[in-house]
Specification:
alpha/beta; single chain; 25% helix; 37 strands; 13-stranded mixed beta sheet; 12 helices; 564 residues
């Protein structure tokens, strides 16, 4: 192979296991460019200089060629993978046989003579050692180690972190629990619980580990199709595809300076909490900071009422921040209490109008202010009509008409550039998540007078974006539109309608929303500000703070990003 065309790979680990990794790489003509270890025994390994990495990984160069964690210990591989924000590569020895229908995760290594049969699904950072035989439809989760000459029969399921000892045999349709150990030469005839140890022929459990909950925080990228699909599956399976967390919503705000990532907290191996964020370079790229997307965000939990989960989430997130030179964090929380136990400074940023949907139209009507009722009657005299489009009924023409009214409204209000969403943004967002949206329109003489794009998250409606044509103001189309939306909400057993807030508390925009729910208690939209590296923050903010133009009463965060 031409030297210039060789695939370059970096290794983390300079022990015995790494020698076998190197043999596997060489069988495919890969080039090893760097070797790292936190406690190298020698300065050279395989004729390459070993770079010593600090225990906190601060001096690890994240940029560079793809990495393989060349360490046999499952827990250490997991620890390193959870910290390093790098690209990983999966490799197999030239003599290994892997079915074209098998799926192999990133960071996984398949050694000489191993066989992986059809429809097997191998996770990330897995070791399939020399001569192991993985039969059809096997499922092997992340950080598993399959030792030499192991035989897994068909439909075997190996959960995260398990170690399967040399020459052991596992019969069809057996499940091996998380972080369990199967001793060398064991014949496994029954399912093995999490954390248990089984030995012998037939296999017998000799040890069960009493354990507390296991919390694991991962930082994931959203660059490849596989990464994006994995994220979408997680969001759909565990968090009901909340639109504010969907990939199409998040991707719009990503750019070359703001790189999209997400935290994933597993509790006992089960996804529990997810939080998308953007990681941003600061000046010379020595430091970075973190910000969550525009709108309702922050950690999305299976059960945010369990405050221990949020405390653990922030504890692990802050640990990752410190190891990765993150200077500060700015979080926009949702309205469901996920700000609880935040480890930074909370700010009550804005009151948001949220109203309860009543059981009948008559009961809902009595909750409106007299202004809304009078405006609705006036709209009826102007013979306004209403239509709501949802799911597949939201066609390109429906989106196009909505977008025209929306842009007219932005132009009239001299809106900031950030609010000028292109039509394609709405098309991508709605078509990828059709069951999570509705578009409501009011008409005057069959011409669209006002519009609202509604996000549907289970039993809650969110007024996302909307607009009204100025020529129809006298017909009161906006009040008419929202009363009709609430009629639809009553008919479809919705529970809440969130209208959001104003630009500031109590302004005209806020008041125009509050009239629909004058008796309902507002909810507070919180933001969070956190300084992780005080020294770096002070240094980066110094020139801004010392400027004559700087207002010390300014609430902008982080200060070093303030434009004067």
């Amino acid at each position: 192979m031409d030297e210039s065309n060789k695939i370059k790979v970096r290794l983390y680990g300079a022990g015995g296991h790494a020698h076998v990794i190197i043999d596997t790489l060489k069988s495919n003509g890969y080039e090893i460019t760097d070797v790292f270890d936190n406690a190298p025994k020698n300065s050279l390994f395989a004729s390459l200089k070993v770079e010593k990495i600090d225990a906190n990984f601060k001096n690890f160069p994240n940029s560079g060629s793809p990495l393989i964690i060349a360490i046999g210990n499952n827990k250490i591989r997991r620890k390193i993978a959870a910290v390093l924000d790098v690209d990983y590569i999966s490799i197999k020895h030239n003599s290994a046989i892997v079915s074209t229908s098998a799926k192999i995760g990133k960071g996984t290594v398949i050694f000489a003579g191993a066989i992986v049969q059809a429809n097997s699904n191998i996770g990330e950072h897995v070791i399939i050692n020399s001569g192991a035989n993985i039969d059809h439809d096997a499922k092997i989760e992340d950080y598993v180690h399959i030792a030499p000459q192991v035989t897994l029969c068909g439909d075997v399921y190996i959960k995260e972190g398990a170690f399967i000892g040399a020459n052991s045999v596992i019969i069809p349709q057996i499940t091996i629990g998380k972080w369990a150990t199967v001793g060398a030469g064991t014949v496994v005839l029954e399912n093995v619980p999490d954390y248990a140890t089984v030995v012998g022929n037939p296999g017998k459990i000799i040890k069960k580990k009493a354990k507390g909950k296991q919390y694991d925080l991962y930082v994931k990228k959203l660059n490849t199709v596989e990464e994006i699909n994995t994220y979408k599956e997680l969001l759909s399976n565990y968090w009901d595809n909340n639109v504010y967390y969907t990939y199409e919503y998040l991707k719009y705000y990503e750019n070359e300076h703001d790189q999209l990532r997400y935290f994933l907290l597993n509790v006992d191996g089960i996804p529990n909490t997810i939080m998308p964020f953007y990681i941003r370079d600061i000046k010379d790229k020595t430091y970075k900071d973190v910000i969550t997307p525009y709108g309702y965000g922050g950690p999305l939990c299976k059960n945010c009422d369990d405050t221990k989960i949020l405390s653990k989430f922030w504890e692990l997130a802050d640990k990752w921040y410190r190891k990765n030179n993150i200077v500060s964090e700015f979080v926009r929380f949702n309205l469901n209490g996920n700000h609880t136990n935040y480890s930074g400074e909370l700010t009550e940023t804005l009151l948001n109008v949220k109203g309860e949907v009543k059981e009948t139209d008559e009961e809902q009507w009595t909750t409106f202010s007299s202004k809304v009722r009078n405006n609705y009657r006036k709209a009826e005299k102007h013979q306004l009509t209403f239509k709501l489009y949802e799911g597949k009924a939201i066609t390109d023409s429906v989106i196009e008409n909505f977008h025209k009214v929306y842009i007219e409204t932005m132009d009239r209000n001299n809106a900031k550039d950030i609010y000028y969403f292109p039509k394609q943004y709405f098309e991508n967002l709605i078509k990828a998540n059709p069951d999570s949206f509705a578009i409501a329109k009011s008409y005057k003489d069959n011409v669209v007078a006002s519009v609202e794009l509604i996000i549907i998250n289970e039993a809650t409606l969110y007024a996302f974006l909307g607009g009204t044509r100025a020529k129809y103001f006298e017909c009161r189309p906006n009040d008419f539109l929202r009363v009709e939306i609430l009629k639809w909400a009553v008919l479809n057993n919705k529970k809440y309608y969130v209208l959001g807030g104003g630009l500031t508390n109590g302004d005209g925009l806020y008041k125009s929303k509050k009239v629909f729910f004058p008796k309902d208690e507002d909810v507070i939209f919180y933001t969070g500000r956190k300084i992780i590296n005080e020294d770096a923050y002070t240094l980066l903010s110094k020139n801004i703070i010392n400027s004559k133009k700087y207002d010390e009463n300014c609430n902008f965060f982080p200060v070093y990003r303030l434009s004067l």
